[in-house]
Amino acid sequence: MDSAKNNSMRQYTGIATSPGIAVGRLRVFDRRHLSVEEYAVSQEGVSGEIERLKAGLSRTCDELNALKEKLKETTGDDHLFFIDTHLLILADERLFSEAVAHIQTELVNAECALRRTLNKYREFFDGIDDLYLRERISDVETVIEKILRNMAGEPHAPIIPDGDHIIIAAHDVSPADILQMDRTRIIGMVTEIGGKTAHASILARAFELPAVAGVDGIADMLLDGTSVILDGLSGCVIVNPDSDTFLEYLQRKRQYEYVESELLKMAELPPETLDGYGIKLKGNVEVPEEGPSVLRHGGEGVGLYRTEILFMNRQQMPDEEEQYQVYAAMQRAVAPHALTFRTLDAGGDKLLDGMLHANEQNPALGVRAIRLALQMPDEFMKQLRAILRVSAQGDVRIMFPMISGLEELRKARALLDRAMADLDAAGVPFDRSIAVGIMIEIPSAVVVADLLAREVDFFSVGTNDLIQYILAIDRSNEHLTHMYQPLHPAVLRSLRRVVDVAREAGIDACICGEMAGDPLYLPVLLGLGFNELSMGATSIPRVKQVLRRCTMERAAEIATACSGFATAEEADSFLKDAMSPYLCNSLD
Ligand code: PEP
Ligand code: MG
Q1: Average pLDDT, integer, range 458-486
Q2: What digits encode the pLDDT tens for the residues 142-168?
Q3: CB atoms inside a 10 Å sphere around CB 552
Q4: CB under 6 Å to ligand 1: residues?
């Protein structure tokens, strides 16, 4: 018998993909044990194999559509995006033609052809630098596994374990698996593969299901039924914990849940300072599944919807209709609050498979964001029309990324006007007075902010890029993190200028970079005059807690003091001292 079954404690370390602590029983699901026969076929057998392949594809398509209908009734429309992704992979002509080519040229059966096709996809995805894109291979794997099961007459059954307090262990879990889980009984999930940005992890976070990925050997059937602790904060998984460890984690779990529940109480409270000065706190999102989490954490709408995620991991750009469906789902998820769309911000480190990006010497300064969008006006107009169509159903705003000056803004607005004219001609309704803003993330935009302010309805400061470009520090270079300084005088002066110009022009100015979600910087941003901050959903209660402990007067003092220092180091040490009364006792 395995030592795990012999009750000896064993600890595994993986990647924490969804926060929280779960204590329960491990149930192992290993779908890899699907037995698929692979054999050679004769020339005469080729057409028969192609027909079997087609039938497998069509049964899988029916299965996914049936699942979609069922989930619509139980879960609603808002989480169906992942099934649509799988349907799109299934419909991709290249998947079919690649498998057919294997059958025809290598004279193998359809199952073998599918496996070889998958291997080619794996090689391709392995060579991708971007982690998010690399992890999208799991969607292709799920779809091919479904086809193979259907060909074997063994449809992909949902994970339905017996008992309560179940922690699922699997080689991989698909987004559809998570959607179908009984979340009253399944309290955690650990997988052998996957990572933070895998679709399954995004869904686990959206459903607040603690999860750990990348734990080799955890889907071993011998571990089935053992008691287990899963720590989605540190990535630690302990099988057969001894009684001291068990008690220690029960204590940690209680502490974590207490902190979370206390922080969630913040959701009900108004986002205002001790002396009653109110600001807006909003969420940053990438997929519609994150919308409900923003509202639960007390966000009043979405200040940054990174639409480029929909364009990634695919060979073809999404058409207008597909974009409309996803954007409309996002709008419904955050209604009745406002939703700010950021138009396609691709290029640089966010390359799209569906287009040929130039091989650039310096991608951070290359054809990216609005520059890229303006180079492909037809594609860009599809996005603009899709967003405008959603504006007919609720409070929707639109903003352009990385605007460097008036020429780009005017070109983007001209395309928006053309998109409006297209919809008018087709008799499609939209909000003609939709608010149009820009992201301030290039130093030149700060310098000419007064000129830009005359032609937009709002500014949204992307501090992640603004700091990168002001200080010429690559935001993802781990050797320069100490020089990436939000309190550098050049950054603070730029922020002050943006907010002053906005106030003078009578337009809104908000911050949607990571700086907005760090409670340490709250008084500085508040004191500078920002009255709207947008951040990851789980940061909202923490920022609100500090907001409600601080007065506007103190925030202004802190901002003035920080702005008076000649170096970021001095400002930083002053701020940490000044903030200790607000941050200590904070439920972190
Ligand atoms: C920013 O640059 O601050 C921002 C919010 O955009 P992103 O992080 O997507 O570049
Ligand atoms: Mg940016």
Answers
A1: 88
A2: 888 888 888 877 655 666 667 789 999
A3: 17
A4: 304, 306, 345, 441, 462-465, 512-513
